[in-house]
User: What shape does this take?
Amino acid sequence: MRDAASRTGFFLVDDFAGVPRHVVDAAFDAAARFFTADTTTKIAACAWEAETNAGYVAIGRERLGVSHPDVGKEALNLPRDSAATVLAAVAATTDKADADALAALLDAASAAALALLAAIGEAMGDDDIAAFVAAHDASAAPAATSGTTLRALHYSPITDSDGVVAVDDDGCVLRAGAHTDYGTITLLFRDDRGVDDNDPASTSDDLEVLVGNDWIRVPVVRNTVVVNVGDLLHDWSTGLFPSTLHRVRGRATAHRFALALFVHPHDHIAVRNMPGLTAGDHLRSRLEASYTGTPSQS
Assistant: This one.
């Protein structure tokens, strides 16, 4: 872990880092059913709110890179602190079982994240691993708020009528611009149910990581979760673990689904190497840049 995280800021963990397979599959099915609803219905059910970062983010609303809004991307944000409201909207839009499936992944992935943070704390030689983990643990500070959020993500096929001008010669389009993640770590679950380890084409994914001067694709490996370092772990480790630029670039004609848990410390935790700045302040500034279209600085 230390070697991979210190070289690229990305690594894979087997067995979904302890999250049961059936929980991951059920959450993907639930997200797909929600995104099948028409946009008007999704916005009416739970439009994204800036104050809580909760709800449905419509196509064209978010911009992670500097050139244009994320292409064909919609999302459902379930922050740890306000997930109940969004889950109620999901239940009303599709089915209560779908809301339960997303809630189960939020809980299981959050528990897996705490175990990973303990291992990361040991790998970076933190003087107080327990305090490092507790800074992210809801049970350690029940009254504390946090930006930890599960996001269901869907990139829909793009047609000529969508006005996309940046389609490459190989038919690919930049779906989400180059960015770093804002929090401590991210757990990215990819739908691997169509993957054949003996067929390289089936393991291709749209996630690309900048290594040196090259964009490297992160292949889909069955039963793994991608873990990447965010800005606050980069700070916490004093640069030992880099927060690496990455992007989503894939075929314009393909659907892509992903489920990502963005793990943040409690909002009041001070950013170690940025005096006067808290984790909550940092997240709010990055979200404001992403959703207003102002280019975010990495």
Notes: Residues 293-298 have pLDDT under 50 and may be disordered. The chain has one domain: 2-292.
